[in-house]
Amino acid sequence: MANxxxxxxxxxxxxxxxxxxxxxxxxxxxxxxxxVLLLGESGSGKSTLLSLVCGIVTADAGRVDLAGTDLAxxxxxxxxxxxxxxxxxxxxxxxxxxxxxxxxxxxxxxxFAPERRKxxxxxxxxxxxxxxxxxxxxxxxxxxxxxxxxxxxxxxxxALIGQxxxxxxxxxxxxxxxxxxxxxxxxxxxxxxxxxxxxLMVSHDERLGARFDRVVRLADIASVERQxx
Length: 229
Ligand SMILES: Nc1ncnc2c1ncn2[C@@H]1O[C@H](COP(=O)(O)OP(=O)(O)OP(=O)(O)O)[C@@H](O)[C@H]1O
Description:
The protein is α/β, with parallel strands linked by helices and about 230 residues long. Helices cover about 35% and strands about 25% of the residues.
């Protein structure tokens, strides 16, 4: 397929510091509309890889291309704006603003992304909440007062608002039991299908694989190097 959602080519990255961790990814590709679950043990480098994909850190060598743009060609500020326009990120700890309302948390990425803002309409935050099973009375509640499961759904709504072409999710189901995980993934996949977005999710939990187009083991696409201090 021409112009995939994401490609990594001969990527190498090492965290700075004496006891550092390095990762090399010769090749990885995510097609438009495709969902991939990336599996790896704790500490294997999954979050590091997502940071490279999102341009939160930049590769020491090689190319990370998002919809045809090499992230290394963008300066830091431009990379942040590009990320806000193109990627909905669901962080492991959700990263919600506890004193802001649910709706302000959901609308936050649009502040930095005018194109994404144009794609969203008034009432989208409330619509996403309803689609994700959040009752309408919590839309104006402070995010810090919600249960973990509710916060998780708000984090998903924030990633989906304005239909970014790529959703990146870091272990978003780790706090849920098996039944809740399945329900949560069902809602997430319905929303992603409706928006036509690609999904890259990382986890250590093999049981999540059934819903994804492809399951990839980090060890099969990447090699890592740990240096003792
Ligand atoms: N900001 C950072 N600075 C220095 N080293 C880091 C940083 N973030 C992660 N690392 C190191 O990179 C290695 C891989 O960590 P990473 O968080 O990518 O793994 P993971 O597979 O996502 O783990 P988990 O499943 O536990 O979240 C670890 O050795 C970690 O100490």
